[in-house]
Amino acid sequence: MFNFHKHFLGLNNLSPSDCMAWIIRPGMEFGANAAWWGVRKPRKSPHEGVDLCMFRDSAGAIHRMGSCYLIPSACDGVIASVIADFIGMSVFVKTGLRRGDGKALYLLYGHVQPAAGIEAGCAITGGDPVGSVSDTALKVNGPSPHLHVSTAFIREDFPMEMFNWHGLVEGEAEFLDPLDLIEIPVSFDF
Ligand SMILES: [Zn+2]
User: Do 162 and 171 contact (CB within 8 A), yes or no?
Assistant: First the structure.
């Protein structure tokens, strides 16, 4: 149901050889206990997703994410919330998938600059641009530009006022490893 990579290539006019594999370094992976930037400080809670910061082309060159790249929705859904995060904005997309216990699957992006019209309540189709990667140039000692991607099952009566990263952790949203779901080629540089 998710296809991040195919849509990322299409939206940014890249061929498969332009973007062969997303590079995952220690700290970028789901469940990481430390940051990947600066002095690799411990995280307040295990990393709730994966950070897409750079990719490798077929010649081995590394390309870094930046505001020049557009971020596609990886699936169809409805935008549940658009909120500020510590680098840019987060966009939460509720997919049509429900589990037997009634919880819905969400695609959660962090650190984006939303495109015009990306607002709560809007329907979105897989491949539609959600926005671009937030520029982090003003953040001293912060991470380089990257897209944070989470996938989580969230109960239907989850309080709207808790629809932020801290609230999702406190409210026991069930985070899953996005790499099992979003369909991207990865290279673990561990
Ligand atoms: Zn992250």
Answer: yes
Cβ atoms of 118 and 128 closer than 8 Å: no
79-107 pLDDT, tens digit each: 999 999 988 999 999 999 999 999 999 99
Q: Each residue of 96-149: pLDDT tens digit?
A: 999 999 999 999 999 999 999 999 999 999 999 999 999 876 666 789 999 999
Q: Are 41 and 100 in contact (CB under 8 A)?
A: no
- Burial class from Cβ neighbours inside 10 Å (0-12, 13-18, 19+) for residue 113 reads middle
Q: For residues 152-167, b (16+ Cβ closer than 10 Å) or e, as one string?
A: bbbeeebeeeebbbee
The structural domains of the chain, with segments of one domain joined by +, span 4-188
CA R_g for the chain: 16
β-pairing verdict for 21-24 and 186-188: parallel
Residues near ion ligand 1 (Cβ under 5 Å): 51, 148
C-alpha of residue 150 to centroid of ligand 1, in Å: 8
CATH class of 4-188: mainly beta
CA nearest neighbour of 70 among 9, 146, 132, 124: 132
Ligand 1 center–CA 24 separation, angstroms: 11
Q: What is the mean pLDDT of the chain?
A: 95
pTM above 0.85, yes or no: yes
